[in-house]
Amino acid sequence: MKLIASNIAVIRGEDLILQDVSFNVSAGEALIIRGENGSGKSTLLRAIAGLLPLEVGSFSIEDPTNGFGGTTHTDLCHYLGHENAMKPAMSVGENLVFWQEFAGQPHLDIDEAMDMVGLDGLQDVPFAHLSTGQRRRISIARLLISYRPIWLLDEPTAGLDAASEKQFSELMKAHLEDDGIILAATHIPLGLDSTKELVFGAIK
Amino acid sequence: MIALFKRDFKLALRSGGGAAIALLFYFAVVISMPFAIGPDPILLSTIGGATLWIGALLASLLGLERLFQSDAEDGSLDQMLISTVPLGGQVFIKSLVHWLVTGLPLTIMAPVFGLFLGMSQDALLASMATLAVGTPAISFIGAVGASITVSLARGGLLLSVLVLPMCIPVLIFGVGAVRAAVTEPDPFLPPFLLVAAISLFFAVIGPFASALALRQGAS
């Protein structure tokens, strides 16, 4: 499988945020998007996820994995934004069960995913009671409970401690070995071995 | 979609969900009427239907502001937008839950609150019937308003200003049906069926309009 972007341009309001962005990422590869604050990293990820319309250009998927043929590329993506998309009034378990049922394609079960992010046993705790890093880890667990080959990660390690960062890079490695694709916007090294890079300059 | 229904229903009934608040607000509006008008049983029972309807309209507006705003704040809305589940269907489910936790309890309690207004038995039953078929329209129209104002910090006021005029037809025929139920020879059925028609109409176009507004708001 291969995700190809050709000549992407995105306009927000009246400003041209992205222009002539082209790249391709194959199964098992990670693309790290770097650049200063405001250079359009999040905009690119949101555009890939289908949250922002493209002004010019297109995304396409070459030879999709079995079972995903005929679907648009946005259906193949997990998007992890700045917000964690969890309801504070519900328990961690309830939140994850909801996202699993809502997103479909169940992969790991809730307990397994919680164990993978090192928070097994916190299923019944209200999400509001967790610390910032723990909330982020639950959000990462959301990537594991439903299967999507492409992970779009926007500052995924924000709020994580060193041990959790390491744990998360193991999870990403496992996903890549599984023929997954990762696109991540970040400032800090994610601990992945071989990655492509896309560097954005500041906007004029 | 069933998952969304279960989650929203659960959230609405928990603390901060606002389901009980709407009912209390409804009670407060209806109960303050006799104090404002004075103890005139004939006048009170004449305007009883209108009072029950206006109270229900205002109480329904209360929870609408948070319909999509809480999802937008915690990032759930992004996930809803990119989901494989049709967005219009999701809006329909959310509006339906909003009605189940506000419109339906208001309808059930209306005859009880109507007793404070000295309404006749026929008028009470007619109010309950028209509210039952009319309040869904408020939820579906409200969803459109909520999705337009989702990105605004103080969207609640604008939401009310947008939604109230759209609800006037429901109000006219709803109150008209209640009045017709107690005044001979006006027929009850035509205005009642019109209210039902308005609800069905907005149940179909509301979710589409709302989905469109949410997509525009995201970009």
Written account of the structure:
The complex is a heterodimer of chains A (204) and B (219). In chain A, 28% of the residues lie in helices and 27% in strands. Chain A is of the alpha/beta class. Chain A has one domain: Rossmann fold (3-Layer(aba) Sandwich), CATH 3.40.50. Chain A has a five-stranded parallel sheet, with helices on both faces. Chain A is globular and about 45 Å long. Chain B has 219 residues and is mainly α. Chain B has one domain. In chain B, helix 3 packs antiparallel against helix 8 (155-182). In chain B, 48% of the residues are buried. The mean pLDDT of chain B is 91. The A-B interface holds A 12, 46, 49-53, 74-75, 77, 79, 81-90, 94, 98-99, 101-104 and B 2-4, 6-7, 10-11, 14-17, 70, 73-76, 78-79, 81-85, 218-219.
Beta content of chain A:
25-35%
Order of helices and strands of chain B: HHHHHHHHH
Tally of alpha and pi helices of chain B: 9
Q: Count all strands of chain A and give the number.
A: 8
Main sheet characteristics of chain B? none
The CATH architecture of chain A is 3-Layer(aba) Sandwich
The CATH superfamily of chain A bears the name P-loop containing nucleotide triphosphate hydrolases
- Name of the top-level CATH class of chain A: Alpha Beta
The number of domains of chain B is: 1
Largest sheet, spatial ordering of strands of chain A: 5-6-7-3-8
* Spatial extent as radius of gyration of chain B: 18 Å
- Mean pLDDT score of chain B: 91
Q: Runs of chain A with pLDDT <50, length 5+? A: none
Number of strands of chain B: 0
What is the H/E string of chain A?
EEEHEEHHHEHEE
Q: Structurally, how many domains make up the residues of chain A?
A: 1
Biggest chain pair interface: A-B, 28 and 25 residues
Distance N terminus to C terminus of chain A? 35 Å
